[in-house]
Prior knowledge:
The protein contains 6 helices and 8 strands, in the order βααβαββαβββαβα. By secondary structure, it is an alpha+beta fold. Strands 1-2-3-4-8-7-6-5 form an 8-stranded antiparallel sheet. The radius of gyration is 18 Å and the shape is globular. The model is unreliable at 1-35 (pLDDT under 50).
Amino acid sequence: xxxxxxxxxxxxxxxxxxxxxxxxxxxxxxxxxxxxxxxxxxxxxxxxxxxxxxxxxxxxxxxxxxxxxxxxxxxxxxxxxxxxxxxxxxxxxxxxxxxxxxxxxxxxxxxxxxxxxxxxxxxxxxxxxxxxxxxxxxxxxxxxxxxxxxxxxxxxxxxxxxxxxxxxxxxxxxxxxxxxxxxxxxxxxxxxxxxxxxxxxxxxxxxxxxxxxxxxxx
Length: 218
């Protein structure tokens, strides 16, 4: 079966609302943008932590920023839960969802900070193979981290047993979370990612209660 992963920018159930957070002047236009801007930013803060996100944004500059986020946590969790319950062994078709995206436009192009989630095709058994063991490191028996992806990003695999999902789902279709950015310090990147993982583990109600450590790079 051919693996198919949809690009984050085309995920169903994701509302991408491009909004200017800086550089707005007074007038009716700025007032109209204030409410949706605040809503999108609050979603990002909910998943990755207000202080973590502020620190990351501040470190990337104070220029114009555009924020887009999943339309609601209930919708995101609902889609992930439905996919987990429908999972079967050998299933390689998993949608990827952009939880939060912040664009930093400049004269040189647009830098992007993005957090995403999906059910992975990487099983925990595969992670013990030499091909994957070189890059994926075990943090405990239910959490693996890929600290170096060859780009400014970091990924986590978390065993999450969704209530009502088939047996084996937690190990054969673990939760995969990622943060990609224009070049954050590793400590800021891991703070965003670990908070994102803990938030989703809680919202999905993972029955095995995986413990995601704050320190992902040991």
